[in-house]
Amino acid sequence: MASCSMYELFSFAGTLAAWKINYCTGDYSRCARYQRAASGQQVPLQLMPNGALLRKKPGNGG
Amino acid sequence: MSYWAWWQGGVVLAGVMVLHWLVLGRMMGVSGRYTALIDRWRAPPPSEAEEALTAEELSAALRELTAAEFGEGALEAPLEPAAPAPVSAAPLSLGTHALFFGALVAGGLLSAVLGAGWTPSFAVRGAGLTTLVEGRPWLTPLLLGGGGVLVGFGTRMAAGCTSGHGLCGTSRLQPGSLLATAAFFAAGVGTSFLLQRWL
């Protein structure tokens, strides 16, 4: 977990604690980041534990 | 031969760690940087190419995904007291990596010149090791290279090295880092003892 940038993020922001409780310190085997790392694949920095990717919200003005 | 006092080294290391956090918004970890550099080389599939997000965009995206996964109530958890700014999840540029590794080498060189002096040498130390490599010059690079491979393997296996776990993790009292650092030191002391005892 020390090398997971998302874990650092979840540790510092109290509003994101649910991720840490449910994935990092809970059943981490279902964490998409863990699964990728464990299978030797590259882990995208913006991959969330549930498999979603952090992306910009579409802008209003195109 | 004289080295810097232990407390001088400690102050400098702590200063570098805090500076790294303030400038880049993330914890310092040398082996992690090597990994990030190699990962950049092994480019991700185009569909997963990471787009750079500003702090505001990152915060908005995180809130949206958190609410979608756990409900709006999860976002009402109070912030931890004096919580620092969230770390950045954006990949660092190649220039930033180059500056970091350049500074790493320059810093080591500077401290050597200012301290005990710098004399490049591939010689191994210790009576036993000297005897072992005597007449076998090919063995020295093999030992040094083999040691480097073992260190690299260990840091990847432990998900961090003496900077990531030893400096940053232990100062944040992370149990995994405390355990990893204890293991580093125990292995170092044990290996040193064995080398002195039997070589």
What value does the Rg of chain B take, in angstroms? 21 Å
Which structural class matches the secondary elements of chain A? mainly alpha
Measured by residues with Cβ under 8 Å of the partner chain's Cβ, the largest interface is: A-B, 31 and 49 residues
Strand share of the residues of chain A?
under 5%
Round the mean pLDDT of chain A to the nearest integer and report it.
77
How would the global form of chain B be characterised?
Answer: elongated
What number of domains of chain A? 1
Elements of chain A, N to C (H/E): HHH
How big is the Rg of chain A? 13 Å
- Structure annotation, total helices of chain B: 8
- Main β-sheet description of chain B: none
Assembly annotation? heterodimer
Structure report:
The complex is a heterodimer of chains A (62) and B (199). Helices cover 37% and strands 0% of the residues of chain A. Chain A has one domain. Chain B has 199 residues and is mainly α. Chain B has a domain of 76 residues. Chain B is 64% helix and 0% strand. In chain B, helix 7 crosses helix 8. Chain B starts with 5 loop residues before the first helix and ends with a helix. About 7% of the residues of chain B have low confidence. Classes of the chains: A mainly alpha (62), B mainly alpha (199). At the A-B interface, helix 1 and helix 2 of A face helix 2, helix 3, helix 7 and helix 8 of B.
